[in-house]
Specification:
The protein is an alpha/beta fold and 254 residues long. It is 39% helix and 22% strand. The chain has ten helices and eleven strands. Helix 2 packs antiparallel against helix 10.
Length: 254
């Protein structure tokens, strides 16, 4: 290669690198449905300080995301409503970081039409209440904890037949909001969200009726060389991010 061609090629590489830096880095996040409003706010604040970076967040069931990541889904960070799922990824060698707890969730009974502040789990067995929404206990942590709470309250057998099972806790909240269910067992974070606040009422379920909703995240093996994943993970531990989690009904543990 001539010197002129070499210099031209080197200049081209420098321009490409500069363009890449200007575009910033890209991060794909899989997050539990209960995090939608809190994480959207955290991501927006992070973007203000890092305008060149691109962050795409997909919300859904933690169990579904766990299975998808095991099968190679292109997510860099996984925020789970059940810390057991990130721990399983780590144990399987599919994580590029330690598992970090970030919050504990709370469970509530929420209704758009009933005075949920007066409802406890035993009253969900009332024949007048014919449809109760919960997330799917098979793969949604809030669904599993809802089933545990109903069983410990001694009403599972009376409520099971009237359950409307949603894909995730966000969909369960939608079922109640749209009138497809009279009440739902959902995340406190969703009951406090702009979408539901002022459109219904809720009652917090005692935590002794279910196992803790300890939540955690992990950087996936796919993002081992992605510095944005580590920068965003570190941002979660800042007082600003922790304050957002608290305001949205989580008990921060980061």
């Amino acid at each position: 290669m001539s010197r002129r061609r070499f210099v031209a090629a080197l200049a081209g590489l420098c321009l490409a690198a500069a363009a890449g830096a200007a575009r910033g880095e890209t991060l794909g996040i899989a997050a539990a449905a209960d995090l939608r409003f809190a994480l959207d706010e955290i991501v927006a604040a992070f973007r203000n300080d890092n305008p060149g970076d691109r962050i795409d967040v997909t919300y859904g069931s933690s169990g579904r995301f766990y299975a998808q990541i095991r099968q190679g889904a292109p997510f860099d960070l996984f925020f789970s409503a059940d810390i057991a799922y990130p721990r399983q990824l780590h144990a399987a060698g599919m994580a590029a970081s330690a598992v970090t707890p970030y919050a504990r969730g709370r469970l509530v009974v929420w209704s758009a039409t009933l005075d949920a502040g007066r409802l406890d789990l035993r009253q969900l067995a009332d024949p007048a209440i014919t449809r109760v929404a919960i997330a799917n206990p098979r793969h949604a942590p809030y669904g599993r904890r809802a089933e545990e709470a109903l069983r410990r309250a001694g009403v599972w057998d009376k409520v099971e037949a009237k359950l409307i099972v949603a894909e995730n806790v966000g969909q369960a909240a939608q079922f109640v909001l749209t009138g497809n269910a009279q009440a739902g067992i959902i995340a406190l974070a969703l009951a406090l969200s702009p979408q539901l606040a002022g459109k219904g009422s809720y009652r917090t379920i005692p935590e002794n009726l279910h196992e803790p909703l300890d939540q955690g995240f992990v950087i996936t093996r796919r993002a081992a060389a992605n510095p944005l994943a580590r920068r965003f993970a570190a941002y979660l531990a800042t007082p600003a991010a922790q304050a957002v989690l608290t305001r949205h009904g989580f008990v921060p543990t980061g």
